[in-house]
Write a structure and sequence with these properties.
This protein is of the alpha+beta class. Helix content is about 20%, strand content about 40%. The strands form two sheets. Strands 1-2-3-4-8 form a five-stranded mixed sheet. Strands 5-6-7 form a three-stranded antiparallel sheet, covered by helices on one side. Helix 1 packs across helix 2. The chain is globular and about 35 Å long. The protein starts with 7 loop residues before the first strand and ends in a 6-residue tail after the last helix.
Length: about 120
């Protein structure tokens, strides 16, 4: 069984990425952290805060699940979902290349991904 918050690997176009998902308090937020394996101190943190129309972990949802009221649900523990977030972050030039931790609101990326999400069968 995987430990909560443990780093996981994702390889995209020959680049190894490390990522994890954590839930934080006091302001109830879920954080997806991404970084290249070779740049330990250049991290992107996509933050999903609970708020009007936005739902993060908690009953009836599990850790790492984020949703919008009225449409859209994603599980940040699924590598395919993480890859989609990574690709969108790269497209938006959000991933740092130098030392530092960048924190970005993850909801705009969520909205883009769920708007283009293939319909369920």
């Amino acid at each position: 069984m995987r430990r909560d918050g443990a780093l996981r690997k994702l390889t995209v176009d020959g680049t190894v990425w490390l990522w994890n998902v954590r839930h934080r308090h006091p302001d109830c937020r879920t954080v997806l952290t991404l970084r290249r394996a070779e740049t330990r101190h250049a991290q992107l943190r996509l933050v999903f805060r609970d708020g009007p129309g936005r739902i993060v972990a908690g009953y009836p949802m599990g850790l790492g699940e984020v949703a919008a009221v009225g449409g859209g649900w994603l599980n940040l523990n699924e590598p395919g979902v993480v890859r989609r977030f990574l690709e969108e972050a790269l497209t938006r030039d959000l991933v740092p290349t130098a030392h530092g931790q960048w924190e970005e609101d993850g909801w705009p990326l969520f909205d883009t991904l769920t708007a283009t999400e293939p319909p369920s069968a």
